[in-house]
Amino acid sequence: MPKDESVYSYSAVLMGSPILLKLFRRDEALAGRVFALIKRYEDLFTVNRAESEVMDINRAAGQRPVSVSAAVYQLIKCAKAASVPPASAFNLAIGPLVKRWRIGFQGDSVPPEVDIQALLAITQPQDVLLDDARQSVFLAKPGMEIDLGAIAKGYIADRVRDLLRKEGVREGLINLGGNVQTLGAPEGGWSIGLQKPFAASGELVGAIEVVDKSVVTSGTYERYFEQDGRRYHHILNPHTGYPLDNELDSVTIISTDSLDGDIWTTLLYGAGVEAGRQWLARRPDIEAIFVTKRREIFLSSRRHFRFTLLDDGYRLIDCTA
Ligand code: FAD
Ligand code: MG
């Protein structure tokens, strides 16, 4: 990348999130196509509006299977596979609990215990029944709802990368708010800030440098509310129905595909630092940065990124050193 070439940034608000595209050429037409692609997927996946293919599936819960487009079917199939292992904290059928808590939306409050227990019965991932031949999805119990909020941005970030690559873009970046996907390597790498939990937006604990990688961060500080002096955040434990409660403030995943980043941030949120590191020992393609409430930053490994600590209130623990 020549040093004097400028970055062109294009922004939009989609999926309730600020979206940023960076290119090294001025290309409004391409930026427009990228935002249109994101919008098209949002229209298929959203559960924040009355109409989408996922809403069609949810409305037919307990009644009939619904045939959907290839993208929706593929993503649901992938999300189900991540959800069914008993130790998984990921659950694509978490919808009824997400809707009941409303965390990050108006009217959020702690539901009565009896409501949570009742809703747990209709959030079982095995009750999402798939038919490859018909490309159809059937939610076996009335009231069930699929929620792809934890995974759809990753899928979309990967499709944006594919489009940019097809259009001959060698260096570019798309940030979907939590999911960053990069192409190529300007000046030796893309520098991506790691947000300081519960601090003002833009305050960083560290910087991650990557080439051709996805960087996904999931944090309890992103969407939460407080009630009676307690904080309730938006990543729910599918086994209890309450927000996941452990030593973590955030998990960041560095991987090739942002879809993997999305699945693994949620899995590792559930696992915590110790178990999470053991799981990753068998996945050299997935690397994690854990930020704990005790102000420690654990790096599971650093094969595919460089990390710079920017806040000396935090202690860096490099598990590979
Ligand atoms: P992640 O940690 O990746 O995911 C957390 C989200 O996943 C939760 O918000 C919940 O939806 C779901 N979830 C919670 N627990 C689990 C679990 N155990 N397993 C699996 N999933 C879980 N926001 C708006 O404010 N307005 C909108 O109109 C809007 N539209 C959207 C449309 C689409 C297609 C998508 C993908 C997102 C949209 N959002 C919208 C944002 C959405 O509500 C979530 O806040 C966002 O997807 C969370 O992503 P994250 O990476 O921040 O968090
Ligand atoms: Mg996610």
UniProtKB/TrEMBL annotation:
<dbReference type="Pfam" id="PF02424">
    <property type="entry name" value="ApbE"/>
</dbReference>
<feature type="binding site">
    <location>
        <position position="150"/>
    </location>
    <ligand>
        <name>Mg(2+)</name>
    </ligand>
</feature>
<dbReference type="InterPro" id="IPR003374">
    <property type="entry name" value="ApbE-like_sf"/>
</dbReference>
<keyword id="KW-0274">FAD</keyword>
<dbReference type="GO" id="GO:0046872">
    <property type="term" value="F:metal ion binding"/>
</dbReference>
<dbReference type="InterPro" id="IPR024932">
    <property type="entry name" value="ApbE"/>
</dbReference>
<keyword id="KW-0460">Magnesium</keyword>
<protein>
    <recommendedName>
        <fullName>FAD:protein FMN transferase</fullName>
        <ecNumber>2.7.1.180</ecNumber>
    </recommendedName>
</protein>
<comment type="similarity">
    <text>Belongs to the ApbE family.</text>
</comment>
<feature type="binding site">
    <location>
        <position position="266"/>
    </location>
    <ligand>
        <name>Mg(2+)</name>
    </ligand>
</feature>
<feature type="binding site">
    <location>
        <position position="262"/>
    </location>
    <ligand>
        <name>Mg(2+)</name>
    </ligand>
</feature>
<keyword id="KW-0285">Flavoprotein</keyword>
<keyword id="KW-0479">Metal-binding</keyword>
<dbReference type="GO" id="GO:0016740">
    <property type="term" value="F:transferase activity"/>
</dbReference>
<keyword id="KW-0808">Transferase</keyword>
